[in-house]
Amino acid sequence: MAFTYIAHTPGYDGWATVGADDCITTCPSMPLPPDTTAPIVTITSAGGDQTETTYALTGTVVEDIAIATLTYRVNGEAPVAMTPAATFAETVAVRDGWNTISVVATDTSGNVGFDVVGVDVTTQTVNITSGAFLYLALSSHVREG
Fold first, then answer.
1. Per-residue pLDDT tens digits for 45-73
2. CATH 3.90.79.20 describes domain 40-121
3. CA angle 9, 11, 15 (to 5 degrees)
4. Any idea where the domains of the chain sit in the sequence?
5. Which burial class, exposed, middle or buried, applies to 39 when counting CB atoms under 10 A from its CB (0-12, 13-18, 19+)?
6. What pLDDT shows up at residue 51?
7. Do the beta carbons of residue 44 and residue 57 sit within 8 Å?
8. DSSP readout, the chain?
């Protein structure tokens, strides 16, 4: 029993009429359209001020095909590989002062997505243990006269 159907394939112009007997041996496989959508990377851990020299980096990656690589970088140093997955959680070493942390995801088609967070670390504290020290520090800035 022979039959004919009409098919439309997205990405190709027009319609094709194909008979069942033709497809048994002569129908070429049609390539999938190329993936041009970059992964969407979102760092969910808060940036801002902190007093610790480690930062809990967490976030998500949304990708329509597959994630090939996932890395983070602190202050432009060498990238550190993470397991390519839809979520990530890493403990990252940061230094005193301003730190820029970026996360980059690359999909299997070579599309790149990223997100960046800034963390300002202040680990120095001042402990005043003597009133004389405070008096001396303040009096050195007072002029008589």
1. 988 888 889 999 999 999 999 999 999 99
2. no
3. 40
4. 40-121
5. buried
6. 87
7. no
8. ---EEEE--TTSSS-EEEEHHHHHHTPPPPPPPPP-PPPEEEE-S--EEES-SEEEEEEEEE-SS-EEEEEEEETT---EEE--SSEEEEEEE--SEEEEEEEEEEETTS-EEEEEEEEEE---------HHHHHHHHHTT----
Question: How far apart, in whole angstroms, are the C-alpha atoms of residue 50 and residue 117?
Answer: 13
Three-state SS letters, 69-97:
EEEEEECCCCCEEECCCCEEEEEEECCCE
The candidate with the shortest Cα–Cα distance to 101, out of 132, 74, 63, is 74
